[in-house]
Fold:
Amino acid sequence: MPISLHDKVAVIIGGAGGIGAATAKVMAEAGARVVITHRPDAPGSTTKADEAAAILASLAGSGHRAFPADIANSETLNALRDSVQAAFGRADILVNTAGFTKPIAHTNLDALTDELIDEMFVVNWRGQFAAVRAFAPMLKASGDGLIVSVSSIAGMNGAGSSIVYGATKAGIDVMTKSLGRALAPEIRVLGVSPGVVATEFVPGRGAEFNAKTAATTPLKRVAQAEDVANAILACATHLTFSTGSTIVVDGGRAL
Structure:
């Protein structure tokens, strides 16, 4: 039988984004108290905080919170951990959904500047690891901790929006395996690897791109954010004897 998330605290890094918000929704519906993060607002602006507040207001249940955090700044992740500890006294689930990409043709090597490569590894890999590092003691204290990181089939097939994006996601897959060993048995570590998702994550990709992709995908559609969120939820509620694995959610795209 599926496990209820009642009394669990789920921290969703990047919870104000498409997949993150969808994950917050299904986690809350399963009974968890949800923490979502949003990028810190510029002085005099509350845009990101307002967006996060709107997401919280839409969630089932009560007791949910939103905190600012910059995935590229480990100090803010440590501050997030301290805020969660002060507000809830525990954390049971950590979901890493934050990331970014920039579409660059794989043949255009010169466009992959050192600065872009460094930035993408900082946000897409180092930031995920830093979040794990910050929350690992709390998750261990739970005794039944779970980490889920959002990867991509680009990390498996070498395709995707750019070479460096695929490399960062391959790094997430390796990290999932390594942490699955290192943090057991108190913490399980899983990855969820989507193909194309109908969000605004990749700049310049819209309905036309999605339609072309759907036509060449065995299940004849691209993923919705909810498809990925349901896979993340399953890691917490059904896949309770799995760790170190990455679940592909791509409609057969990688076949």
